[in-house]
């Protein structure tokens, strides 16, 4: 992942990315190219083959601001459900008719909450029973597809259904269940970045963060983490940029407490982000 110097959303930024990609493609054979132009002016890519250019050569270019490895990130859930599991897939054809609980109705005066996770089972009646304008889950996108494991090629589509994990649906259920008592919701956004194995990559995670900004979410929950300890990872930097836009960013601190009190994973390490954790002691 490479961040360039021009401000995102400008003609100059578009030209800078195009020129940068042209320049490095004279040496490297690239694949899975992703461009960013909302929170950051940058690109992400994989190098298949190429010449003798090194990352040091790239970082020496005058328009390169920062370079990061596009490493994997994991969802902060201890359980990986399988497709059809009764733990989350309650809206299968066999069981949907048995669910008679009240669906939460969107409040036009409420807040818009984005959930970057495994998608949402929006067919569940407690979560509105539909997807799109007028539904509780009104926004969303699947950035990865079921088979994505953080390393292979993503297969995105416009349907953010939680197909095989359940964690995003769980998070959405907690948010919706508290709406009556604490606040009102105008819409939820389901931004699916986890495949069935509960893994993603930083390049995908940043794409979802940009979509959150484009969709004007006011709050975003991210139960995903990558690097420990530092706020210099790209997901932490982009989470800070969301916070600077006035978006309330809530991120899980991770599941690495056995490594010490400081073992918080990004993006929860970012300034301006609310890091959430639970504590448990057997003593």
Structural notes for this entry:
There is one protein chain. This protein has 283 residues and is an alpha/beta fold. It has 2 domains: 2-67; 73-276, Peptidase S8/S53 domain (Rossmann fold), CATH 3.40.50.200. Helices cover 20% and strands 24% of the residues. It has a 6-stranded parallel beta sheet with strand order 7-8-6-10-12-13, sandwiched between helices.
Concise synopsis of the structure shown:
The protein has helices at 11-24, 55-59, 167-177, 179-182, 202-214, 234-244, and strands spanning 2-4, 28-37, 41-50, 64-67, 72-75, 111-117, 137-142, 185-192, 199-201, 219-222, 224-225, 248-252, 274-276. The protein is of the alpha/beta class. Keywords: Hydrolase, Protease, Serine protease.
Q: What structural class do the secondary elements suggest?
A: alpha/beta
Task: Note the beta-strand portion.
Answer: 15-25%
Quote the distance from N terminus to C terminus. Answer: 44 Å
Q: What is the strand tally?
A: 13
Order of helices and strands: EHEEHEEEEHHEEHEEHEE
| Poorly predicted tracts of residues | 81-91
Whole-number radius of gyration?
20 Å
Kindly give the count of domains: 2
Number of helices: 6
**What's the overall geometry?**
globular
Oligomer: single chain
Main beta sheet strand tally, sense and closure: 6 strands, parallel
CATH superfamily of the largest domain: Peptidase S8/S53 domain
Spatial order of the strands forming the largest sheet: 7-8-6-10-12-13
CATH architecture of the largest domain: 3-Layer(aba) Sandwich
């Amino acid at each position: 992942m490479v961040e360039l110097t021009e401000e995102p959303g400008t003609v100059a930024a578009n030209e800078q990315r195009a020129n940068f990609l042209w320049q490095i493609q004279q040496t490297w054979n690239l694949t899975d190219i992703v461009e960013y132009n909302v929170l950051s002016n940058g690109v992400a890519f994989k190098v298949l083959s190429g010449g003798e250019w090194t990352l040091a050569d790239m970082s020496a270019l005058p328009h390169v601001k920062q370079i990061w490895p596009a490493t994997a990130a994991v969802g902060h859930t201890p359980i990986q459900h399988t497709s059809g599991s009764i733990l989350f897939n309650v809206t299968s054809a066999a069981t949907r008719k048995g669910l008679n609980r009240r669906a939460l109705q969107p409040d036009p005066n409420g807040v818009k909450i984005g959930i970057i996770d495994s998608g949402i089972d929006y067919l569940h009646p407690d979560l509105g029973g539909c997807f799109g304008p007028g539904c509780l889950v009104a926004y969303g996108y699947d950035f990865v597809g079921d088979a994505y494991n953080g390393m292979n090629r993503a297969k995105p589509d416009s349907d953010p259904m939680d197909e095989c994990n359940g964690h995003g649906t769980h998070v959405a259920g907690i948010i919706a269940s508290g709406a009556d008592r604490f606040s009102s919701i105008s819409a939820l956004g389901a931004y699916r970045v986890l495949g069935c194995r509960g893994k993603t990559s930083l390049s995908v995670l940043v794409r979802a963060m940009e979509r959150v900004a484009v969709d004007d979410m006011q709050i975003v929950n991210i139960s995903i983490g990558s690097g420990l300890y530092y706020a210099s990872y790209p997901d932490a930097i982009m989470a800070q940029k969301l916070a600077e836009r006035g978006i309330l960013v809530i991120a899980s601190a991770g599941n690495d407490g056995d490594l010490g009190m400081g073992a918080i994973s990004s993006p929860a390490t970012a300034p301006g982000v609310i890091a959430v954790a639970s504590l448990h002691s057997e003593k």
